[in-house]
Amino acid sequence: MRATGNLRFGAARSVHGLGANRRIIPRAATLCQTIVLLFLGSSAGLAQDFRIDTEVFIGKEKKPAAETLTLFASGQIYDFLLQEPEEITLLDPVRGRLTMLDKARQIKCGLNTQELLDLSLAYETQAGESKDALFGFAARPDFAVTSEEVRENGQDLVKLSLVGKPLEYHAVGRRPERLEAVRSFRYFADFMARLNSQRPGNLPAGARLELNKQLAERELLPVEITRTIPPTNPLTGKRIEVRSHHLVSWALSGEDRKRIDRAGTYLAEFRAVSFEEYRRAIAQPVENTTDEQQARR
């Protein structure tokens, strides 16, 4: 789950000290190789098509702050932000490639997954040494994990809690009929967590990666996830809560296929830019974008 949905990028955070990069690159390379082997080890790992509709809510709000549609089709993953300005993220697990498409500006940016791992791990290294307790914990989480099997509204569910200071997750998950979907979702959720961590002000990916791991080990797809950050001062502070609801469908519609085709057209036609240029561009308001839309980016 992203912090507030499919978050976009602002100006780059400086996390690329030469010494830090030298320390983390061997670890990142090993991790990337492990991920590739994990998914290539089963020919059925990403074979089944399905979709996940996600709504993200801030606090007690009834109106979603963000809505996304994620399509898993023929081994590829397509993530669409449904409100304007539209952004599409494409993941190719076999080739280890991630591409972002900004429809309004007609630009694209491609990264290989090794590059993203390097960026994410460098940020975690820096945050882990920070005096900020929240950022340090998100980089190197230490959760107390509990789970409980329940039956609600005729459905067998699992309630999962990851509790730590100063961050906790509470999730409700369901075991799908197609267990390979769990593997596909974890791949997607892991790399989107790493990608979103590169937005200035966002937390490192470590805490969300641990939640993804706990869900996958129990063979669960999320139905609902709540991330809570308690106030640092109970008397004057504010509790920060983000909830996401996930609806899984086991077939793609004709409109879904059209979305995929349009994404392929954008991929061929949009101008390629560097990751730094993409982040700078995405941080700027799009002409005719409302203040509300801009605040949600």
Report on this model:
The protein is an alpha+beta fold and 297 residues long. It is 35% helix and 29% strand. The chain has one domain (18-74, 113-253, 276-295). It is built from eight helices and twelve strands. A twelve-stranded mixed β-sheet has the order 7-8-9-10-11-1-2-3-4-5-6-12, sandwiched between helices. Mean pLDDT is 84; it is low at 1-27, 40-45 and 288-297.
Q: Based on DSSP secondary structure assignment, what is the total number of beta strands?
A: 12
Radius of gyration from the alpha-carbon trace, in angstroms: 19 Å
Briefly note the structural class of the backbone: alpha+beta
Structurally, the number of domains stands at 1
Average pLDDT figure: 84
Helix content, binned percent? 25-40%
Cα distance spanning the termini: 15 Å
Strands of the widest sheet, in order across it, are 7-8-9-10-11-1-2-3-4-5-6-12
Binned strand content:
25-35%
Query: Topology as H/E string?
Result: HEEEEEEHHEEEHHEEHEHH
Shape: globular
- Count of DSSP-assigned helices: 8
Low-confidence residue ranges: 1-27, 40-45, 288-297
